[in-house]
Design goal:
Layout: E1 3-7, E2 10-12, E3 18-25, E4 34-39, E5 45-51, E6 58-60, E7 68-73, E8 78-83, E9 92-98, E10 101-102, E11 106-110
Parallel strand pairs: 2-11
Antiparallel strand pairs: 1-3, 3-8, 4-5, 4-9, 5-6, 7-8, 9-10, 9-11
Length: about 110
């Protein structure tokens, strides 16, 4: 059974940083591209970033480019999202995705 478990969210002040993690199991993690998406209150899902299977290719939404950094550790079956210079508009539930599957999400709130 595929499982994706996000962690690392929390409350942070504008300008702060957080690192999200996604622990994957139930599939061969190193074979698949992985994606972070987010959902702000009363809004739809927004794509944030995708990394290919070996970590050599990364893409970012314009809204996070230069502030967020995606990475992965295939030996640990873990996906990461380093989020810097956080803004109130980054407030959302963040999910990791593999194809159609996603985890339960982790809440990120950026507020003073």
């Amino acid at each position: 059974e595929v499982q994706l478990v996000e962690s690392g969210g929390g409350l942070v002040r504008p300008g702060g940083s957080l690192r999200l993690s996604c622990a994957a199991s139930g599939f061969t993690f190193s074979n698949y591209a992985m994606t972070w998406v987010r959902q702000a209150p009363r809004k739809g899902l927004e794509w944030v970033s995708t990394i290919n299977s070996d970590g050599g290719s990364k893409n970012y939404a314009d809204s996070v480019k230069g502030r967020f950094f995606i990475s992965r550790d295939n030996a640990r079956n873990t996906l990461y999202l380093q989020m810097n210079s956080l803004k109130p508009e980054d407030t959302a539930v963040y999910y990791c995705k593999q194809g159609p599957r996603r985890g339960q999400g982790t809440q990120v709130t950026v507020s003073s």
